[in-house]
């Protein structure tokens, strides 16, 4: 059997951001329980901004002290590309 893929669509950016924060919470807590830390790579651009804002507002609700963040660029371009 092949991989099962799910496509989720949202009516608003806020709905997407709320879903992503809850997914982040779930993944981070399970990762910390299993490995003792949660690591995530964050991309730039406009699309994730509502999610990042909502995530940043979760200062008290997430285990930031055990979270490692990395900046990433998913584009396949030379390092000298603007």
Low-confidence segments: none
Coarse structural class: alpha+beta
Range of strand content: 5-15%
Mean pLDDT: 90
Separate helix tally: 2
Tell me the helix content: 25-40%
Short synopsis of the structure:
The protein is an alpha+beta fold. The chain contains two helices and two strands. It has helices at 13-35, 49-56, and strands spanning 38-43, 67-72.
SSE layout and pairing:
Elements lengths: L12 H23 L2 E6 L5 H8 L10 E6 L10
Parallel strand pairs: 1-2
Write structural notes for this entry.
It contains 2 helices and 2 strands. It has 82 residues and is of the alpha+beta class. Helix 2 links the parallel strand 1 (38-43) and strand 2 (67-72). The longest helix is centred in the N-terminal third of the chain and has 23 residues, at 13-35. The model has no long low-confidence stretch (mean pLDDT 90).
Keywords:
single chain; 82 residues; alpha+beta; 2 strands; 38% helix
């Amino acid at each position: 059997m092949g991989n099962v893929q799910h496509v989720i669509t949202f009516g608003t950016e806020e709905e997407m951001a709320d879903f992503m924060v809850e997914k982040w919470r779930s993944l981070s807590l399970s990762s910390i329980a299993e490995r003792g830390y949660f690591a995530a790579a964050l991309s730039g651009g406009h699309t994730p901004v509502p999610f990042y804002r909502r995530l940043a507002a979760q200062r008290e609700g997430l285990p930031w002290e055990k979270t490692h963040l990395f900046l990433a660029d998913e584009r396949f371009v030379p390092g000298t590309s603007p």
